[in-house]
């Protein structure tokens, strides 16, 4: 059966559809029964033939047995993936990793850029009784995406979607963590979930834990194997691929690398 395939072997998929989200972000859609059913927070390793392999959160689609990856062109591998066309092939393996622990009540979701991908999947696992606020950050109006999709996914819930741009060209002006402080002063949330740039997540987790709010963050680190062998994704004693990608906020705040340092391809620690 398809859902019983070996997660550590590449499954070859053909790109069937491409959506231009922004001038630098695209969503690539393909058929994959297994990846279409991953849990929020899980990821796959994506092989771009002749280039490299990348860890990617699995984007939701509106079609049965379809999965997707949302990629921003940045480095060599992500740019090569962005430049794929319909009919091109990729290799996928997984899913890997753990998932978010979805609490009842009033939830706050905070995402930056493609960090919105696992949060949108999280929404699809929520109940109609959840009261959900989604805080989404981008640099500019041109780079804001998934707002309409988020509102559609949340149409049966009490909700609000708040866009924030650094230059103020759309929504609120500033950083999502500035708006977060305002929201925490005005509301009582039962849980907070975040994914995106690590400095944003660090500030989010620090604020949430200071107010004793349950918070989880889905981390992104340099990753080469995805199965806990190479150690390239370590953050102190933990491996993001094996022990995460989702970590509890109070646990992360005890880790002095979180929000402070990252590892290069050579494994060297550098200041964020």
Question: Care to describe what's here?
Answer:
By secondary structure, the protein is α/β, with parallel strands linked by helices. It has 2 domains: 2-96, Translation factors (Elongation Factor Tu (Ef-tu), domain 3, Beta Barrel), CATH 2.40.30; 106-271, Nucleotide-binding domain of ferredoxin-NADP reductase (FNR) module (Rossmann fold, 3-Layer(aba) Sandwich). 20% of the residues lie in helices and 34% in strands. The chain is built from 7 helices and 18 strands. The chain has helices at 76-82, 116-124, 147-153, 176-186, 198-210, 240-243, 249-252, and strands spanning 11-14, 17-22, 25-31, 43-48, 52-57, 66-72, 89-96, 106-112, 131-138, 158-165, 172-173, 191-195, 214-218, 234-235, 238-239, 246-248, 261-263, 269-271. The strands form 5 sheets. It has a 7-stranded mixed beta sheet with strand order 11-10-9-8-12-13-16, with helices on both faces. The longest helix is centred in the last third of the chain and has 13 residues, at 198-210. The chain is globular and about 50 Å long.
């Amino acid at each position: 059966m398809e859902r019983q395939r070996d997660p550590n072997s590449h499954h070859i998929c053909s790109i069937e559809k491409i959506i231009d989200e922004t001038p630098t972000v695209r969503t690539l859609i393909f058929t994959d029964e297994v990846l279409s059913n991953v849990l929020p927070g899980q990821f796959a390793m994506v092989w771009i033939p002749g280039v490299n392999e990348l860890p990617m959160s699995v984007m939701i689609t509106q079609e049965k047995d379809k999965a997707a990856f949302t990629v921003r062109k940045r480095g060599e591998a992500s740019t090569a993936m962005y430049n794929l066309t319909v009919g091109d092939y990729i290799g996928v393996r997984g899913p890997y990793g753990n998932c978010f622990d979805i609490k009842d009540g009033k939830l706050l979701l905070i995402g930056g850029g493609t960090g919105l991908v696992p949060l949108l999947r999280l929404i699809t696992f929520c109940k109609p009784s959840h009261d959900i606020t989604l805080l989404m950050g981008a640099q500019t109006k041109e780079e804001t995406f998934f707002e309409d999709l988020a509102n559609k996914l949340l149409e049966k819930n009490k909700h609000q979607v708040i866009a924030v741009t650094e230059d103020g060209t759309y929504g609120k002006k500033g950083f999502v963590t500035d708006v977060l402080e305002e929201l925490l002063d005005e509301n009582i949330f039962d849980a907070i979930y975040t994914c995106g740039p690590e400095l944003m997540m660090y500030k989010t987790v620090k604020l949430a834990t200071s107010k004793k709010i349950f918070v989880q963050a889905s981390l992104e680190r340099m990753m080469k194997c995805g199965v806990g062998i190479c150690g390239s994704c370590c953050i102190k004693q933990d491996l993001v691929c094996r022990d995460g990608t989702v970590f509890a906020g109070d646990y992360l705040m005890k880790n002095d690398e979180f929000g402070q340092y990252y590892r290069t391809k050579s494994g060297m620690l550098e200041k964020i």
